[in-house]
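Q&A log
Question type: sequence-to-structure
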Amino acid sequence: MNGNPQVQEVASMIDHSVLQPTTTDADVVEASKVALRWNVASMCVKPYAVAMTSELLRGSAVRTCTVIGFPHGAHHARIKLEESRQALADGATELDMVVNIGKVLQGDWTYVAAEIKTLQDLCFGGNAILKVIFENDYLPTPGLKIRLTNICRDLGVAFVKTSTGYGYVKQANGLFLARGATLDDCKLMVDNAGPRMKVKAAGGIRTLSDLLAFKAIGVSRIGATATDSILSELAGSTSSSR
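Response status: OK
Response body:
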């Protein structure tokens, strides 16, 4: 844990993400060392690794986070609920759930709100928090993002989140790329979140300057894989300025 208050302030914003398809148990162990070294907000892992991660983080302030319906949000609502129950039983205290993107695009707000409410109720009863992932890469208009933000705010969700980091969209050159978090999207979400709900930016935030730009517009959490390099840069810059 770093004793520098500026470093700790930024570290407390970070969900250290360990969600790559190729992640092994050994990778989870190494990632936990990074999370504990910096005392980040949480370590976000794939569902199978929740129990392992909870044990690795035991006794620390770093929370165990996992993803639900990841990465495309297309799981049946009952499966998302069962996945969430298992995650809580395994020790997760934060759930990042992907909305059903197709239902959002077709404007089936009754379905979308009901699915979110089911998991929000579960988290509320289980002393956990819910973050709802929009996957903004797939949402073509600001109106869809605003409507989702409003639904989550009214349901008492803790966080709305921009992206999974895996929302690949086919480009004109035929390549599939994920844009991830953008300042414009996050500003829109912050402006509509109300006084209690917070915003998490994830996807493509790899440098200290990236993180600070999102922090400056009111983002409260950052999903990052480059946690060690971001915080090492900050620790180095703050120590050299003394």
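Response note: Residues 158 and 237 are 32 Å apart (CA to CA).
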